[in-house]
Structures are given as C-alpha cells and as structure tokens.
Design brief:
This is SET domain-containing protein. One of its GO terms (molecular function) is protein-lysine N-methyltransferase activity. With about 450 residues, this protein is of the alpha+beta class. Helices cover about 35% and strands about 10% of the residues. The protein has a four-stranded antiparallel β-sheet, covered by helices on one side. It has a two-stranded antiparallel ribbon with strand order 2-3. Strands 5-6 form a two-stranded antiparallel ribbon. The protein is globular. The N and C termini lie far apart (about 55 Å).
Amino acid sequence: MAEGSNSPAEGYLDWAQEELGVVVHHPLRVSSTPGKEERGVFCEENIPAETIVVSVPWEALMTVDSAKGTPFEGLMEAGAREDDVLCLLLLYHRHILKERSPLKGHMDVLPREYHQTIFYSDDELELLRGTSLHAVTVQWKAQVDTDFRELEALPLPSPRSEEGGSSTARDALEGFLTKEEYLWALGTVWSRFVTVERAGRGLKAMAPVFDMFNHGPLSSTVHGYQESNDCLHLVTLQDWASGSEVKFSYGPLPNSRLLLLHGFCLPDNPFESVELWAMMEPGAPGFAEKNKIMLDNGVDPSKRPFFLTSKGLDPLLLPALRVQRATETELKVAAETPWGETLGARNEAAVVDVLWNALAGMLKEREGPSTAHASCNGPVSGEAQASRTPPDPNNDTGGEGGEEDGGAERTIVPEDRSAAAELLRKGEQRVLQKCLDWVEDYRSGLKHQVE
C-alpha cells in the first residue's frame, strides 16, 4: 500500500494534519527509498500497545459519498458499481480538479503505476500458468474490458443542461476516461481502499496517511471506525520501539491475494494457502439430497472454495467430500450421522482417492509454466473461480496459517514479476505437498486398518 511516486515524502504528514484535520497521536516520519517507488512509516518514539496511532476524520476519506456535488452524484443510486464510481472520482480529482482537489496532497503521492496481475503482459501472464492466479487473472482481464466499455457509455443521472455539459461519464472526464486511466484507478481501489462500517453501511474508503503504512502479516496494528468522533482510527495492539517501521496488517492474505490485489508477494508468507473447489454437477446422483445435507451444515461448495494451508486441509473438506461421494445407502447413513463423521470404509477410501488425485494434479500443474496445463476432472478441482468484482481483502477468509517467520516481513520488489510468480508457485507447491503427504499417510493408515 505504501508504494508511491518519487515526489518527496517530506511534508506529507504536515499537509494531512493542517489541511484534512488528521491527528497523528505519536511522532512519525514517512521515509522514501531513493530512486524507488517505496516508502514506509517509522516511529520516532516508543508507541505502547492499545493506543491510537492515527485518526482520520470521515470527511477526509474518499468514498462513494464523495460523489456529492460532482457530475457522478446519484450514480450509486442508479445502480452503478461501487468500484466504478470510485474510479470515476479518482480520475475526476486527478485530471479535472487537479490543484483544486482537497485531496491533492494525497493524490500526488499515489503510485504512477501498479503491479497487480491485471497489468501483466501476455508473456508475463504465462509465468503464472499452473498457479491459482492464472485463470483468475485471465477472467478478470476480460471482465475489465467489458466493464470499461460499459463505463464509457454510462449515462449520468442528472446531466448538466448548460452548453457543453456532460451526459456520460466519458464526457464528464473530458477525454481522460481511457482504458489505461481506468486500469490505474482500479489498481488504486483494489490496493489502497479499506472497507469501513459506518451507520450500518460498509463502504470502501481511501484514507490519507493510512496509505503510507506497509503490510505486516503478523502486525497487530488494525483499523476501526469510531462513531463518537466520526473518525477512522489506526490502532496498535502491540508495542513499537522508537525507530522501527510501523506496519499495518492488510489481513491474513496468501500470496495469490496479495499479488492479485496489491501487486507484491511475501517470502515464506505465514498465511499461504491454495483454494480447492469441490462443486457437484447438478446431474450427479443424489444431488438434491447431498446438497441439502451440506447446506444444512453451513457448507456451499458452489460459492466458497476450501482452503489448503501449511497446517493441513480445510476442516470442512473431508466431511463435504464424504457426502458428495456417498452411495444411496451411505447417504442414508449420512442423514443420521453427526456431521464430520466417516460413512464407512468404502466411502472413506473413495474420498481419499479422489482427493489424492486432485492434490497430485494441482501439484503437477505448479511445476512451471512450461509444463502441460493438466486439469483435475471430477468434483474436485484446483481451478480458481473468478467473480465480477474482486474480493474484499478486509473480509478475506483464506489462509489461516500464522506460523511466525521473520522472512514474512520482506517483500518481493513489485517490478520483478518473474520473481513474484516463482515465489507464488513455490509457496503453493509447499502447501500442496504438505497436504498431499498428509493424505498419503491417512490413506496408508486406512489400508492397514483393512488388513
């Protein structure tokens, strides 16, 4: 999040406090890396745990409510997507308001370019082949093209009637709504906005100063909204020693999400995970009854993947597969058996076999971009699913690792896309190998029981 332009960081905190009313509760300094689009926030005195570090007034945030008084007022009510309205606002501040923007000091330090996978060229995208990100990125790229064409022609709810007035989003931005600018704005929304709950609404918000803090996966520094003073606060639940870089946790995100949404990876990411989808075909035997049993137990494989981590299988995976692989007789047992218990030796062997084949296939796919792109046939697959809009990183449920590792505090340079792809591949391989080893041990134990 703290990647930014080469403009000096000095004076940024002063601007935020004087112009926006941001309160910095402890002496901080923003330090840039010479010649690089990287910066971080360092404390100049000890910061004790359970204290507020920074407070940002609600009116200083950019949200869809900021569209009031702009040509884009009313777009959300007219059915426009939140991300698209935020993109239009970013471009409006960047190209139309310019010096008049109340957020000019912050707009000036936003990155000139991003490194999320939607910015990868076709050759760079091949580096991701076999990983969980390849299919998602291909689908997102196609969806972005569709969304951009729709946005260009998006009619404004209340077109300005004066001569030269705007009737579409493209008109309002006076030629600055290009595919390149739209991608830049999307990269900003995905990587620099946080979700804030206020007055019963969850809104994405860009918060000045928050942007300057780098990601620390094990950091206990979090954000939260306080109604009493209508401010978004950055709160630390840990001690920070004077001179150290204060880091903010973007959430327990695996490298696939970090690279997709933020454009960087972590070596030895403690929250590395791999998504495994286990959907049933509607025409499968016993589909309705099997689906009902899973839904009754809070499992919907059509909407949520199962997460594989360095700690093992998703606890819901085996119970779901047992139901999916059940025969008519076993299904009757499942209806009378507590959720999670085995349904018999035949069923358990079938579940382990299909899972072993799926994991082995997923591991094979990740050998490198030059290997054949195998697919896992049947109900279990490592093929990632793409959605129309990106997942909210603040509510991501993936990756429940959490093993401490000092290497996790380092990041791969965003520009080194080859290194980032290899890091992603190796991390997913480690997770899959650990899960495959567990399944092999479990299968071996089942065979011994039969003998």
